[in-house]
Amino acid sequence: MTGDITEQGVAVYAASFGQRRLWYAQRLEPTSPIANVPLAIRLRGPFDSVAWQRAVDMVVARHDTLRTCLADRGGAPEQVVLDTCRVRVEIEEIPESDASAFLDRVATTPFDPTVAPLLRIAVARFADEDHLLAMTMHHAVTDGWSYGVLLRELSDSYAAIRSGAIVDPPELTVQYGDYAEWQQDAVAAGRWADQADFWRAELADVPLVLDLPTDRPRPAVRSTAGEAIPFTVPAPTAAGIREAARRLGGTVHMALMAAFQAVLADVAGQDRFVVGTAVSGRSPAAVENLIGFFVNTVPVTADCSGTPTFPELFGRVRERLLRAYAHQDLPLEHIVDAVRPPRDPARTPLFQAILTYGPHPIAELRLPDIAPEYVCVAPSGGCHSDLDLIIYDDGKRLQGYLIRPAALIDDERASAWARRLLGLLEDIAAGVERALCTNARPTQTIPARVVAPADAAAADGPRTDLQRFVTEIWTQLLGLDSVGVHEDLFACGGDSLQAIRLLSRVETRTGRSIGLADFLRTPTVAGLAALLATNPAAGESDSVPLGPSVRIPARVSYGQHRLWFMQRLEPDSTTYTVPVSARVRGALDLAALQQAVEVIVARHDVLRTRLADTGGIPEQLVAADFRVSIQVEDVAETGAADFVARITDTPFDLTTLPLLRIAVARFDAADHMLVIAMHHAITDGWSIDLLLRELSLCYNAFLNGTTPVLPDIPLRYGDYAEWQRAMVEARRWDDQSSFWRTELADWPLTLELPTDRPRPDIRTGHGQSLHFVVPAHTTAGIRAAARRCGGTVHMVLMAAFQAVLAELSGQDRFVVGTAVSGRGPAAVDNVVGFFVNTIPVKADCSGAPDRPELFDRVRRNLLRAYTNQDLPLEHIVEAVRPPRDLGRTPLFQAVLTFATDPCAELRLGATRIEPRPVLQHAARTDITVEIHDTTPALDGVVEFSTDLFDPVTVASFTDRLLEELAQWNR
After folding, report:
1. What pLDDT, on a 0 to 100 scale, did the predictor assign at position 313?
2. What is the DSSP letter of 225?
3. Model confidence, pTM
C-alpha cells in the first residue's frame, strides 16, 4: 500500500475526485439514497448460503474498497481502509409476495459514507431452491464495471468452496487507493492539460443549457429526488438496433445516444445542446480487475440541426462520442473548471441530461447448478440531472430506466417521453428512415415502477424446428441458458473459432454444410436456420463422400506433401516443428500423465504415423503399436530455457517415428515444465487444443482411479487425406481455382519491406522469434472495436497488420497470408492431424482509409477468402501462377495467424498451468505474426527471416504494430 498507515492498523488514502463529488453531494442531502447502486438476481437451484458467506468474506478481504469508508479531514474527505471488516449476508425467509418490499428496503436505505462497509448483501429465501439475492453498494466504492468484477470473483470463490478446492487467488498488486493517488498526481502534474484544452474548445459556443418543458417552476436550488420509469426494449427490437449500429460502423451506445438526442431535441425544441454520458475511467490496465468508483461522466455535444435522417445523426454522434472517448481521463470536475460555465445552483453544469449504457453484470454470475435470472430493480430514487436515461444490456434485451426529477416533471410527461423513445428505437430497428420525425409512433404502455423477475426471452425465442435445433447447439457451445434468435454470435461472447465449431456441429447432425462467410453475414440463430432451410444435405450435393478409405496405406495430404518436399530441401530445419510449453505448479502425477499419453497415442493413428517415399506420392505408414515415453529430467530452474530448446530445436525426420516428443523438467516435487513438440505434418493449432483437452481428461480420470470416456473417432487422418485428393481429382473445387485466379489477377504479389540485408537468391528457413504481449486495455479495445464494426478480433488484427505493412513498405496494395482451420467436413472435428490451410488475403490500403473503412475492406476480403478456403495452398499457387522467385514465398511474404490459447485446454488435477512462449529459430516467410487469444491480454510471437532482418528491426516493427492496435481503442 502507498497510503499512510495509522496506529490502529488502517490505511488512509486521498479520496478520488469522484468520491469527493459524492461526499459533497451527500453533505447537502444526507438522507438521499441517490448514491446507492442496487442489484437483484433470482437464484433458482441449490443455493449454499454458508459457502456464499465464505465467498463474500474472501472477496472483501481481497479488495480494499469493500473495507473502505470516507472520513472528514478538515472539510475534505479521505479514504480510510480498515484492516478487517465483515459484510454479513442477511438471510430472510419471506413469501414471494413480500419480494418488492424486501428489495426496496435493501436498495433504498441510505448509507452513512463514514461507516464501513459500504456494501449490503441480503438473500430472501422463498423455498429450498428459490432465492432472491439483493446487493447494494455506495457509489463511492463501486460502478457498473465493478459489479461485474465482484460477481465474477464471488462466483469463482463460491464454486471452489463448494468443490472443496483450495482457494488462493493472487494478491492484487494495486488497490483503489493507489489509483486515487495516481489520479491526484496526474492532475497536479498537468498530465491532462491537453484534455482540458480540448474540452474548452469542444464546448465553446455550444449551448450549455437544455430547456426541457417542466410541470412546475424550477426551484432555486436543484433537488436530487427522482422517480424511475422502467421499460424494456424487447429482444427483436434490440437485435435490430444492434444490426443498424453495425451497418453504420458503430455501437449500440451510439445508436441509443442518437435516439436520446433526437427525443430531447424534439421535446425541448432545441437542435444544439450537450448530453452527458458515462465512460469506464479505467485507462490504466492495472485497475481492470479492481472494485471501485472509476466511472467518469463526459460531455457529448448534440447537433440535430437540419432535420437529419438517422444515419446522418448517427454519424454526427459517432464522431462526437469518439472525440469524447479520446479525452475521457480528465475528471468531470476538472472539465467544468476548464470550461467555466455560468454558475446556476438550479441546474447541473454543462449538461442536464445523461445517458448511461453498459452490460448487465449478471453474465459474470456463474454458480454451480443455479440458473440466475435478472430482476428489475430501479435505481434508488435519485436523479443526477434533469433527465437520466440508464440502459442495461444483458445480450438479449435492453432494460431501461428513465429517471425524472420529482420537483420538476410529472410521471405522465416523463412516461410520454419514454414511449416516444421506445417508438423511435422500434423505427430504427425496423430500418425506417423518417425515424427522427417528431411523430414517432407510440408503443407499449409504460407501467408503474415494478420490481419483479424479468420475462424470459420468449418474445425472441425460436419459432420453427430449425431455429429450435440451432438454438440447442448454440447454447451448448457458448454455455448459455438461452439465446434470442436475432442475437449476434459475437455479441453473445463468441468468436470466429466458435463460429467454425458451430457450423461443424450443425453439419454433423444435419449433413448440411454452411460456408463460414455466408454465416458471418447474418451470425444469428435465425440467419443460420434460414441458410439451413435453403442448403442441400450432403447426399444431395456434389461433394465426394468422406468415409473410411479403402486405400491402405493412405497417400499424404497436400499439406503433408509440401512439408515432405521442404524437408528434402532442408533436412535439419525446425521450421515446421510445433512446440507447446507450460509451467505446471503443483503436484504432477507422472505415472497418470504417461498413462494418458499412451491412451492418446493409441487413439489417434496420426501420432503413430511416419511418411515413406514410394517413388511417387509419399504414403502415410501407421504403426499398429507404438509407445511415446515421456522424457523426465531433474533440472535446475536456471536450466529451463536450455531444456526447452533441446526438446524443440532438435529436428524431426519425417521417415522415422516418433513425430511427437513429450518431456517434463522437474524443478522440485511441485514445480515442473511440460514441453510438447510435434512435426507440423501430424498436427495444427486445432489439433493441439484437441490433444491437450483429451490428455487432460485422461489424466484426471487416471488420477481419480476411473476410466476415461472419450468420443468415438469414426475416421482417421489418412481417410481425410484420401478424400482431399479425391475432391481435387474430381475437380470439385474448380470454382475455387477460378475464384483465386480472378481475385489475385493484376494484384501485386510481392511485398517490398525494407530489409537489413539484400535478399538471397534462394530463401532459407533461417529465422528467429520475438515474444510480445498486447496489453489488457488494448486487448479490450480491440474486442470492443470488433463488436462495434460488426466483425471479429481476427479482422481487427488483420487491419492493423496491413496498415503497418503498408506504412513500412510504402505499398498500398499487396497480399497477406492467414491460416484457416481447413476442417470443412464435420466428421474430422475430433481427429488430430495437419488440416490447417493458409490462404491469401488481399490488402487494399489505397486512398488513406480511416480505420472503420480499412476494417470494412479487410472484412470483405476475408469473407471472400473464407468462402474459398478448401482449395489447398499448393493448388491456389498453381491456379494463379505467380512469377517464379526462389528468394520469396509465392503469393505472399507476410502471414498473420490468430489462434486460441494453446494451453487453455490443459487442466491437470489441482495444478496451476502457466503457458510459456517457445521462441524458435526458423522462419516460414519473411515475417509471420502469430497471436493467441489469451485473457486478459493477447499473447504474440513474431517470427522473421534472419537472412533479411535484424532483431532490433523486428522489435521496432512489433512496437509499431502495438501502437497501431492501441489506436483501435479510441
Report:
1. 94
2. B
3. 0.54
Which pLDDT tens digit goes with each residue over 898-945?
A: 988 878 889 999 999 999 989 988 999 999 999 998 878 899 999 999
**Grid coordinates in use for 212?**
426541457
Query: CA–CA separation, 323 vs 316, rounded Å?
Result: 11
Residue of higher predicted confidence among 282 and 809: 809
* Helix (H) or strand (E) run with residue 518 in it: helix 516-521
Q: What is the DSSP letter of 257?
A: H
- Residues 144 and 292: their CA atoms lie apart, in Å, by 10
> Residue 634 and residue 675: Cα distance in Å, rounded?
14
- Residue pair 803/960 in contact by the 8 Å Cβ criterion: no
Tell me if 254 sits within 8 A of 321, measured CB to CB.
yes
One-letter amino acid of 599:
V
Of 187, 183, 190, 180, the closest CA to residue 14 belongs to 180
- pLDDT at position 439 over 60: no
Query: What is the distance, to the nearest Å, from the Cα of residue 924 to the centroid of all Cα atoms in its chain?
Result: 29
- Angstrom distance (rounded) from CA 951 to CA 467: 53
Judge whether 318 and 44 are in contact, CB under 8 Å. no
- Residue 89, CA distances (Å) to 48, 50, 51, 52, 135 in order: 12, 9, 11, 8, 10
Residue 658, preceding bond cis, omega within 30 degrees?
yes
Handedness of CA 525, 478, 692, 783 (dihedral sign): positive
- Shortest CA distance to 229 belongs to which of 407, 455, 37, 449? 449
Residues in the chain, how many? Answer: 970
3-state secondary structure 302-366: EECCCCCCHHHHHHHHHHHHHHHHCCCCCCHHHHHHHHCCCCCCCCCCCCCEEEEEEECHHHHCC
> What is the three-class DSSP state of 633?
strand
Q: Which helix (H) or strand (E) holds 90?
A: strand 90-93
Contacts of 693 (CB under 8 A, 6+ apart): 905
Which one has a higher pLDDT value, 827 or 586?
Answer: 586
Residues 6+ apart with CB under 8 A from 411: 227, 229, 404
The pLDDT of residue 335 is above 90: yes
Residue 515 and residue 867 in contact, taking contact as beta carbons nearer than 8 Å: yes
Burial class of residue 343, CB neighbours in 10 A (0-12, 13-18, 19+): exposed
Nearest to 832 by CA among 940, 925, 710: 710
Give the closest residue to 516 by CA, choosing from 867, 898, 868, 818. 867
- % of the chain surpassing 90 pLDDT: 55
Cβ–Cβ under 8 Å, residues 854 and 861 = no
Residues 6+ apart with CB under 8 A from 960: 804, 807, 808
Nearest to 88 by CA among 132, 130, 42, 120: 120
Question: How far is 300 from 283, CA to CA, in rounded Å?
Answer: 19
pLDDT in tens, 131-162: 999 999 999 999 888 999 999 999 999 999 99
In this structure, what is the dihedral angle of CA atoms 960, 961, 963, 969, given to the nearest 10 degrees?
Answer: 170
The pLDDT tens digits of the residues spanning 537-572 come to 544 445 677 778 767 899 999 999 999 988 888 888
Cell of 561: 506433401
Rounded Cα gap, residues 755 and 926, in angstroms: 10
Give pLDDT tens digits for 758-792: 999 999 989 999 999 999 889 988 988 887 887 88
Q: Which three cell numbers stand for residue 240?
A: 435490430
Q: Measure the CA–CA gap between 662 and 10, rounded to whole angstroms.
A: 51
Look-up of cell digits 428489495: 103
**How many whole angstroms separate alpha carbon 228 and alpha carbon 390?**
10
Identity of the residue numbered 105: R
Read off the amino acid at residue 361.
P
How is residue 475 written as a grid cell? 447454447
Of 873, 880, 836, 945, the closest CA to residue 565 belongs to: 873
Classify residue 382 by its DSSP letter: B
Q: How far apart are CA 76 and CA 265, in angstroms?
A: 39
